[in-house]
Amino acid sequence: MKDGTNKKGHVSSRRRFLKSMAAGAAGLLGACWNMPPLYCAEPSSNLRVGYLPITDAAPLLIAHALGYFQDEGLKVKRPVMVRSWSALLESFLSGKFNVTHMLLPIPVWMRFKHKIPVKVLAWDHVNGSAVTVARNSGIRGFADLGGKQIAVPFWYSMHNIVLQMGLRSADLEPVIQAQAAPLGPRQVNLFVLSPPEMPAALAGRKIDGYVVAEPFNALGELKIGARIMRFTGDIWKNHPCCVVVMNESATRTRPVFTQKAINAIVRAQGWTSHNLAEAAKLLSRDGMGYLPVSREVLLRVFTGYRPSRYAQGPVPHAIHHPRWQVARIGFQPYPYPSATRLIIQAMGRTRMEGDTAFLEALNAETAARDLVDDRFVKKAILDMGGPQRFAPVDLKHPWEREEVIEV
Predict the structure, then answer these.
(1) Domains in the chain, start-ordered, CATH in brackets?
(2) How far from each other are the two terminal CA atoms of the chain, in whole angstroms?
(3) What pLDDT digit, counting tens, does each position of 216-250 carry?
């Protein structure tokens, strides 16, 4: 921040929390996490869903709204919204939620640094994030971020990874320091800020920009006149961001429960992909109120910047690769191993606060196999008609893809 007085206390307390979590994450698991039967002997059909107010959570929310969880015979209350990744992670570790979405680097950190038995079961969505700046800032690309203060939602996030890919391409150095400290012209100061706080911080000139999931980029566009500098999906084509996670023991001891939950989530992704405007209304505060933003904002996320809209006309500045035909947000549940491997490798090149030495010992191939359990999502996808139901695929190799990154 240019003026760190208002946010300094919040940022410091958040950093203290993350440091304490890093020091004793396993201690947060509680008795229910490690003792069979899981979740303190609750009925096996009892599903507890937590989420952040971002469109990454759409499949979990749509599955509840349309009764897909209930169709599978699961007992589920309305998903519980929390305001920060720290709060969501703590609630998951303490057993308040038994299924949730997480930024994909988070379970890497949990499983391989803290030995927490978390499993990635599916992707929640692809793309769905952007770098947003003030319209009159003069910032047009990564090269213009030198000397700036940029907020990220969490150190272990796709946002931090992709942002730093862009900074390196412009020969800029990401640093993590007090926001009042001097900053060199080729340095970019990064710090964690809760997603709901980002648009207001940008409007108040407390930060120069932010990288985050939707709807906070669309909210910035429509409510404070901000500008999308670049979509992350235009840097890494159809990249994963949030994933569906559960405790590993649940996948082993409660496979029917796990399969039912994934069936509903995959079904919700299929519906959302073909009913974007309806999903925007359903999720908005004008609909069922899962997300605290208007239908107008969510329509911007789900139906704005569709490839068909600029195929024959001017290409928005935020899109450098129109040939990719990448949507602002998409829904594809299969967790391609190539993407998980790339994320693990990229984490080792990404500056983060805290001790990241554990990444040096990771073999991306074996770690990806250990982290992800794709049995349930494969079955759900096949039951819905196969991988081609969600995206164009190579039918000879439907569970593989090539990762494409072009800054």
Answers:
(1) 13-126+241-288+329-389 (3.40.190.10), 128-234 (3.40.190.10)
(2) 26
(3) 999 999 999 999 999 999 999 999 999 999 999 99
